[in-house]
Amino acid sequence: MDYRRLLRPLPLALIFLFVAVAIADLVQTLTEEPPPPPEIQGSTSPRFRAGEPVIDFRPGGEDPELEMLPVPELARGRWSVPKSQGIWAKGAAADFQLDFETGGYRMVILECRPASGKGRVRGLRLTVNGIDCGAVDIVSEWMRYRLIVPEGAIRPGANHVVFTFPDRDQTERPGRSLLIRKLGWFFDDTAGVEVLDDARSVSLDLDAGRVTIRRSGTLEIPIVLDDRSDALQMRYRFPSGAGRADVVVEQSEDEGVGHDKAMKTAMTADDRSVGRIRIPLHGRRGAYVVRIRADLGTPDSQLLITSLRLVEEGDPSRRPRAANPSPH
User: Which of 76, 92, 220, 278 has a 20 to 30 Å separation from 122 between CA atoms?
Assistant: First the structure.
């Protein structure tokens, strides 16, 4: 019997079978839900430590998802609960503790008004760590006042700040003395009182990978690295053409002692409309933090991060490593 006639259609059948399997595999691939991208945020909230902090005593002044530092530690019995108009300093003196990263000279700008009535306060004296920083006369309506904190008064770490009202009787029951809305600490002694009107220090939209920093300081963003995390990629620009920032990725303190070396690179203002950086993260797993230390230089400068994301191996947006700035 001649089997060649029977075997002749077999290659064609195998081709059809191969095509059918390939089509089925393609359909399954297209219908499968793609794996989620690496997370940019960990279990804790981002936080921003301002170099020249403006403390808004009203609730909800900044983004509730962002922890703002420093936070004043108010002395018990000397302050009211914060309200929509601010917080009341009570009695003849009200004090608090405030942490600074650096010491030195400061210009203090205070927005406040006294309690109404016959016994309203007419003067305020500022003391920092026991050093007299001067006094101002207080008018009856909302006003902004400037006081000088001399070199040597503020020190790195905890600082004791006292507002004293000389015309209040020390023996009186500590009733309301001064309603304080905002308190700013600046290195620039030429800063005008309008600096208290600036918009939020930081705007975050981590889902879209967008960040705007409007004050010099350090923004800390927690990230979670897994086997999909190949690199941290950022696009940025300084709209005013001034400023710089250092970007550091290092292991979170919650992870305990690790052996990973911190990875660092820089962003600087230049003539390009958009700058890019890429920090390799090969083999790193667990909780890390991205620290963006911004030095904006001028009051009108800001840093816009238009894309902040973790990318995977094989991501089509990867740029050749030779084009990246060298970490230092």
Answer: 76
